[in-house]
Amino acid sequence: MAIPIPSRQLFIDGNWKEPILKKRIPIVNPTTEEIIGDIPAATAEDVEVAVEAARRALARNKGKDWALASGAVRAKYLRAIAAKIKERKSELAKLETIDCGKPLNEAEGDMEDVAGCFEYYADLAEGLDAKQNAPVSLPMKAFKSYVIKEPIGVVGLIIPWNYPLLMAAWKVAPALAAGCAAILKPSELASVTCLELAEVCREVDLPAGVLNILTGLGPEAGASLASHPHVDKIAFTGSTMTGVKIMTAAAKMVKPVSLELGGKSPIVVFEDVDIDKAVEWTLYGCFYTNGQICSATSRLIVHESIAAEFLDRLVKWSENIKISDPLEEGCKLGPIVSRGQYEKVLKFISTAKSEGATILYGGARPEHLKKGFFVEPTIITDVKTSMQIWREEVFGPVLSVKTFTTEDEAIELANDTHYGLGAAVISKDLERCDRLSKVLQAGTVWINCSQPCFFQAAFGGIKWSGFGRELGEWGLENYLSVKQVTHYV
Ligand code: NAD
């Protein structure tokens, strides 16, 4: 059942604040196409106020020194946030489903991960205390050296709409664990649950200014944050095109950035597989979250000897995917997040057709749904490597298929992309899997699966998919600066 969307303001300095220019952005429910509320639209003026609040939260010797608080103190707040998220899990999942169209059971799983991520970084925050002043072994006895890890400072966190609260957690939890003060800028297409995170922060009395949440348009609020001289780092997740803009703005101030960008990840299926299992991972890898996953394995590279049977079963399984209102029990595929994105996905499909590819399955709006931004799960064959559908990220439920005969050919096809986020290999031959894991150009290689992701394991890309790693210890290091202290003794 749908629930009302809370009306919220910007979250600055521990309080709700109306945007200075009083602008708001409508929220469109992607399932019904109705306007169901609005979010505040921050402008450069609000970014200014939020940056000042964040800097005050870090100010030394004024009783507000978040950065100098022990990791144990920060951990207490992260655990309190996790507990509140758990308490509100079911409501938050519904809000996220209504806002961005993902099936409710997926959103519920995301909320558990959000809480888990805050708990995980609470542990790491505590562990950080013990790692301070780590001695460095020097060749000269006259000197003694040690290392302090300090928070980078005020960080701007800019995130996309596909996992709104989870992407926020991946950045906010390690940033706060490290002792940074943060300004979070969610996507204008899905900000509702991020604003509820603000309410959670109020409820747990997070010190004012430690986390500020500014909803608003990318080119306005996002760009102001990225180019602000008193923001010490930008951690960005989103498209490669926006990543380039952010890097360009940051370069002018030698501001560090970490970029988690787009992908066009392959799944290579060898001839020795259990076909049903491989079909299952192929569908999951490409159609989970309506295909709106940066690391979606959207290029299937299947051995020629099993291709016909594999595609046959892929189509049969696709016929059984329930496409419906994402709040409905058993829904497996909800709508695309927005009209713009929906039209973009359909355009990709029509261009593939006009370039000579075959739509083996799907390719259109499902007939039984008259409203909402729904696209059928789509399987495209007769694909050439020069085609747009093979080369560009669709960010929708669209799978492009090519066949191969030799292992070398499979590797060449898999690496035939500017991107390098994920890659999956399905084969019973584990030596072969190991060989491929070494040569596939990706930040993550999945063997006999696709997409599993753990807080403990690093996530990130190479090539056009960006640089820097989130999650695990690497995620914490993103927000720490190393200071080396040397004594003459
Ligand atoms: P997007 O680049 O359009 O927007 C991402 C964020 O950047 C939003 O908050 C947006 O408001 C902001 N933004 C837009 N223009 C900006 C500008 N000029 N300056 C500063 N900020 C700006 O991406 P999207 O459509 O929200 O998300 C989809 C993309 O995100 C896909 O390419 C997908 O692959 C990528 N993504 C990557 C990962 C990853 O971990 N690598 C995860 C999820 C999504």
UniProtKB/TrEMBL annotation:
CDD domains: ALDH_F10_BADH. Its EC number is 1.2.1.19. Coiled coil: none annotated. GO terms for biological process: cellular detoxification of aldehyde; glycine betaine biosynthetic process from choline. PROSITE patterns: ALDEHYDE_DEHYDR_CYS (PS00070), ALDEHYDE_DEHYDR_GLU (PS00687). Residues 23-485 form the Aldehyde dehydrogenase domain. GO terms for molecular function: aminobutyraldehyde dehydrogenase (NAD+) activity; betaine-aldehyde dehydrogenase (NAD+) activity. The active site is at E260. InterPro entries: Ald_DH/histidinol_DH, Ald_DH_C, Ald_DH_CS_CYS, Ald_DH_CS_GLU, Ald_DH_N, Aldehyde_DH_dom. Keywords: NAD, Oxidoreductase, Sodium. It catalyses: 4-aminobutanal + NAD(+) + H2O = 4-aminobutanoate + NADH + 2 H(+); betaine aldehyde + NAD(+) + H2O = glycine betaine + NADH + 2 H(+); 3-aminopropanal + NAD(+) + H2O = beta-alanine + NADH + 2 H(+). The keyword Oxidoreductase applies. Pathway: Amine and polyamine biosynthesis; betaine biosynthesis via choline pathway; betaine from betaine aldehyde: step 1/1. Belongs to the aldehyde dehydrogenase family. PANTHER family: BETAINE ALDEHYDE DEHYDROGENASE (PTHR43860), BETAINE ALDEHYDE DEHYDROGENASE-RELATED (PTHR43860:SF2). This is aminobutyraldehyde dehydrogenase. It comes from Durio zibethinus.
